[in-house]
From TrEMBL:
<dbReference type="InterPro" id="IPR015797">
    <property type="entry name" value="NUDIX_hydrolase-like_dom_sf"/>
</dbReference>
<feature type="domain" description="HhH-GPD">
    <location>
        <begin position="35"/>
        <end position="186"/>
    </location>
</feature>
<comment type="similarity">
    <text>Belongs to the Nth/MutY family.</text>
</comment>
<comment type="function">
    <text>Adenine glycosylase active on G-A mispairs. MutY also corrects error-prone DNA synthesis past GO lesions which are due to the oxidatively damaged form of guanine: 7,8-dihydro-8-oxoguanine (8-oxo-dGTP).</text>
</comment>
<keyword id="KW-0326">Glycosidase</keyword>
<dbReference type="InterPro" id="IPR011257">
    <property type="entry name" value="DNA_glycosylase"/>
</dbReference>
<keyword id="KW-0234">DNA repair</keyword>
<dbReference type="Pfam" id="PF00633">
    <property type="entry name" value="HHH"/>
</dbReference>
<keyword id="KW-0378">Hydrolase</keyword>
<dbReference type="InterPro" id="IPR044298">
    <property type="entry name" value="MIG/MutY"/>
</dbReference>
<dbReference type="InterPro" id="IPR003265">
    <property type="entry name" value="HhH-GPD_domain"/>
</dbReference>
<keyword id="KW-0411">Iron-sulfur</keyword>
<keyword id="KW-0004">4Fe-4S</keyword>
<dbReference type="Pfam" id="PF00730">
    <property type="entry name" value="HhH-GPD"/>
</dbReference>
<dbReference type="Pfam" id="PF14815">
    <property type="entry name" value="NUDIX_4"/>
</dbReference>
<keyword id="KW-0227">DNA damage</keyword>
<protein>
    <recommendedName>
        <fullName>Adenine DNA glycosylase</fullName>
        <ecNumber>3.2.2.31</ecNumber>
    </recommendedName>
</protein>
DNA sequence: AAGTCGGGGCG
DNA sequence: CGCCCAGACTT
């Protein structure tokens, strides 16, 4: 058997039963593909089930509020995916009368849908011959063909897309695409793959040249920056609390948090004055304060390390913008904040 | 072409 | 601790 037939055969035997593999409905395929971007199946699966249950059709998703969509997405990360998902749902429901785009070219017009996702939906839902290239495909192809072009270089992206397009089974593109991805995820794994039981080990260049652990090649890691966050947990006698939407672009856009003041170093209890509250709502108001955590809560993201303090501030009366403490959990919030809310238990 | 955007899991 | 994950978008 050749490369593509071996992969499809391996897939027919080893594929996992997953809910999005029991349908060709483009709405469900789209949902699964967005959720699974840069996300492992195990992490994304419960979110997929929750979205299908909460929003059975694209109209249900379109008619939801962005806040409700973000709340359901809470904890999954890369929140622009949720915002774009909602934007595209409204576009499909309202501009396209609910008729899902059915070609690679038209799918690309959806916000949050790039080359990979357009290819995945086009092939899986509509059987279009469009080759997917995700992290799994980069790994399988770079190893099997012994290609050391960096997968995240402009040249590498072109080269691997062309190679994948030349390999796809034009008779069964849906099966081929899912086969090579599943093969990469389960057999041709990043770390210590068992090449002894690999069905295509006889033709694998990386195995012959002992380069399995050296491929694929990826350029430069992202630089990690360190930040010091101070969250002001402001509570009043009526059990109201300040909780704000992050409106600026960047991390956690449109999610909610306690008023935040960044500092240049990790603050101790006696450094409270460094927060400079003179220009805030707390100016000329009597309050008591306490530092909740002496040791920073460290929240590590892929490109930022956040060293975080929570300051508990009690005042007589907060302004009208405050919300009730018991409604806190209704709002979408970063894991860092929702974890604190659980732990503090108000 | 390089940065940005989350959070979890693994060795 | 660094790397990876069914990547896309902005600058």
């Amino acid at each position: 058997m050749n490369f593509k037939k071996e992969l499809i055969n391996w897939y027919s035997i080893n594929k996992r039963e997953l809910p999005w593999r029991a349908t060709q409905n483009p709405y469900y395929i789209w949902l699964s593909e967005i959720i699974l971007q840069q996300t492992q199946v195990k992490q994304g699966l419960p979110y997929y089930n929750a979205f299908v249950k909460q929003y059975p059709s694209v109209f249900d998703l379109a008619n939801a509020s962005e806040e409700a969509v973000l709340k359901l997405w809470q904890g999954l990360g890369y929140y622009s995916r949720a915002r774009n998902l909602h934007t595209s749902a409204k576009y499909i429901a309202n501009e396209l009368n609910g008729v899902f785009p059915n070609t690679y070219k038209d799918l690309l017009k959806l916000k949050g849908v790039g080359d990979y996702t357009a290819s995945a939906i086009a092939s899986i839902s509509f059987n279009e011959v469009a080759a997917v290239v995700d992290g799994n495909v980069y790994r399988v192809l770079s190893r099997y063909f012994g290609i050391n072009t960096p997968i995240n270089s402009t040249e590498g992206i072109k080269e691997f897309k062309a190679l994948a397009s030349s390999l796809i089974d034009t008779e069964q593109p849906a099966s081929y695409n899912q086969a090579i991805m599943e093969f990469g995820a389960r057999q041709c794994k990043p770390q210590s793959p068992d090449c002894n039981i690999c069905p295509i080990n006889d033709g694998c260049i990386a195995l012959q040249k002992n380069l399995v652990n050296a491929l694929p090649v990826k350029l430069k890691k992202t630089k990690v920056t360190t930040k010091y966050f101070n969250f002001l947990v402001c509570i009043d006698k009526d059990k109201n609390i300040l909780f704000e939407k992050r409106k600026q672009k960047g991390i956690w856009q449109n999610l909610y948090q306690f008023p935040l003041i960044e500092s240049k170093k990790s603050l101790a209890a006696e450094d409270f004055h460094l927060l400079n509250l003179e220009s805030t709502v707390l100016d000329s108001v009597d309050f008591d304060y306490a530092l909740y955590n002496e040791a920073d809560k460290v929240h590590k993201l892929s490109h930022q390390h956040l060293y975080t303090k929570f300051w508990i501030i009690e005042v007589e009366q907060l302004p009208e913008t405050a919300i009730s403490i018991k409604s806190l959990k209704k709002y979408p919030a970063p894991v860092l904040i929702s974890s604190f809310i659980e732990e503090f238990n108000f």
